[in-house]
């Protein structure tokens, strides 16, 4: 068998025909609907047509992809991961749209919501007709969500919700926000219709990362909610943290998509860019960079596959997701930075995807658990000692 530079370990052999079909379908959609336009979206700092994109992603079965019922595709964890990889190979903002919709907002309702809540929200969200967001992070509570100030008080049979959430993907275009708040009973989740009086979602501007993505603040000023807005299936931080673990799994795969796009751009450039009378790919220093990038990229994809098989078997632990998120995002950023050096000055141009992926990954490195938090999760798992406090 011949050696394939873009698949040096033959990882395609790990895929079933169904897996490959999912990957190829999402890759073709991204090539048609995202790649021709995303540099312009990024430069302008907007994601135009997000609702149309959401409906198309719903038609692909990419929203709530690994959930069962309610119009969801019921795909395997590996198939969902492959979709995340292909989406982030186009842009992290597109993968974030899908992750927040499916792995955070839909997952929370699917796992912890009442049957009425599931019937009300999930079919429309799976189809992309309704967009959802997930409100956990606050201006003063990021890595320490237990310190959140958003609170909900009972008023008769209703709830009165007050607070602020920050850095919320999809916020200003959402129909429903899953908002986590302090209550007298502990932290509870609420399915909040975004047309509720007192709810607003001003968009956050002036970002230098995830520019082709809608990012908002959520503002709740005396939002009155009926009793059936609360998610009945969970009390405490285990609710939002379990959702985050599900979403982090998608990042394990998605970050490798950004890395792959940058590596392949560098590999193609090295074969064609000539200096000193020959392609720069013929020089030892460039080949060393390409070899090191290929090593880390395909080790990361192998790790993602392994975690996906464990998730499908029902044996994946949150600490293992932290392992994957910490390693793969960190290595993806390094791949992007190395690819930029291969491209030289051209590497900072939006004519190539490398700098866009590198800046996007700076956000991916931080959200859904910073490097330090995942190091401490693993440190606790390794030693049995809690260093968080």
TrEMBL record:
Transmembrane segments: none annotated. It holds the Pfam family Acyl-CoA_dh_1. Residues 237-382 form the Acyl-CoA dehydrogenase/oxidase C-terminal domain. Its cofactor is FAD. Pathway: Amino-acid metabolism; lysine degradation; Amino-acid metabolism; tryptophan metabolism. It catalyses: glutaryl-CoA + oxidized [electron-transfer flavoprotein] + 2 H(+) = (2E)-butenoyl-CoA + reduced [electron-transfer flavoprotein] + CO2. Its EC number is 1.3.8.6. Gene3D superfamilies: Acyl-CoA dehydrogenase/oxidase, N-terminal domain, Butyryl-CoA Dehydrogenase, subunit A, domain 2, Butyryl-CoA Dehydrogenase, subunit A, domain 3. Keywords: FAD, Flavoprotein, Oxidoreductase, Transit peptide. SUPFAM superfamilies: Acyl-CoA dehydrogenase C-terminal domain-like (SSF47203), Acyl-CoA dehydrogenase NM domain-like (SSF56645). Residues 16-129 form the Acyl-CoA dehydrogenase/oxidase N-terminal domain. InterPro entries: Acyl-CoA_DH_CS, Acyl-CoA_Oxase/DH_mid-dom, Acyl-CoA_Oxase/DH_mid-dom_sf, AcylCo_DH-like_C, AcylCo_DH/oxidase_C, AcylCoA_DH/ox_N, AcylCoA_DH/ox_N_sf, AcylCoA_DH/oxidase_NM_dom_sf. It is an enzyme of class 1 (oxidoreductase). Residues 133-223 form the Acyl-CoA oxidase/dehydrogenase middle domain. Belongs to the acyl-CoA dehydrogenase family. This is glutaryl-CoA dehydrogenase (ETF). It comes from Streptomyces toxytricini (Actinomyces toxytricini). The lineage of its organism: Bacteria, Bacillati, Actinomycetota, Actinomycetes, Kitasatosporales.
């Amino acid at each position: 068998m011949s050696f394939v530079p873009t698949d040096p370990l033959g990882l395609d052999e790990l895929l079933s025909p169904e897996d490959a079909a999912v990957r190829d379908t999402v890759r073709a959609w991204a090539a048609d609907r995202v790649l021709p336009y995303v540099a312009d979206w990024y430069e302008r700092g907007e994601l135009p047509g997000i609702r149309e994109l959401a409906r198309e992603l719903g038609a692909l079965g990419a929203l709530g992809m690994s959930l069962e019922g309610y119009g969801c595709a019921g795909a395997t964890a590996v198939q969902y991961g492959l979709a995340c990889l292909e989406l982030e190979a186009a842009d992290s903002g597109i993968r974030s749209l899908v992750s927040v919709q499916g792995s955070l907002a839909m997952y929370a309702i699917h796992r912890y919501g009442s049957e009425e809540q599931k019937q009300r929200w999930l079919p429309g969200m799976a189809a992309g007709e309704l967009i959802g967001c997930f409100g956990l992070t606050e201006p003063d509570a990021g890595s320490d969500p237990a310190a959140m100030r958003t609170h909900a008080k009972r008023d008769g049979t209703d709830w009165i919700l007050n607070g602020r959430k920050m850095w919320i993907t999809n916020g200003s275009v959402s129909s429903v926000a899953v908002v986590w708040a302090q209550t007298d009973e502990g932290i509870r989740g609420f399915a909040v219709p975004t047309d509720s009086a007192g709810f607003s979602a001003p968009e956050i501007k002036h970002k230098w990362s995830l520019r082709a993505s809608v990012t908002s603040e959520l503002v709740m000023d005396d939002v009155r909610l009926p009793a059936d807005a609360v998610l009945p299936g969970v009390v405490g931080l285990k609710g939002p943290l379990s959702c985050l673990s599900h979403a982090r799994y998608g990042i394990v795969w998605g970050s490798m998509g950004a890395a792959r796009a940058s590596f392949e751009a560098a590999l193609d450039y090295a074969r064609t860019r000539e200096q000193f009378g020959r392609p720069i790919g013929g020089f030892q220093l460039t080949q060393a960079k390409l070899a090191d990038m290929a090593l880390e990229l395909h080790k990361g994809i192998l790790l993602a596959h392994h975690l996906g098989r464990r998730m499908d078997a029902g044996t994946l632990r949150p600490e293992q997701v932290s392992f994957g998120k910490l390693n793969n995002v960190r290595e993806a950023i390094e791949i992007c930075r190395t690819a930029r050096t291969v491209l030289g000055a051209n590497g900072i141009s939006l004519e190539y995807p490398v700098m866009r992926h590198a800046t996007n990954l700076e956000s991916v490195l931080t959200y859904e658990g910073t490097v330090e938090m995942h190091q401490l999760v693993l440190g606790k798992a390794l030693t049995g000692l809690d260093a968080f406090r």
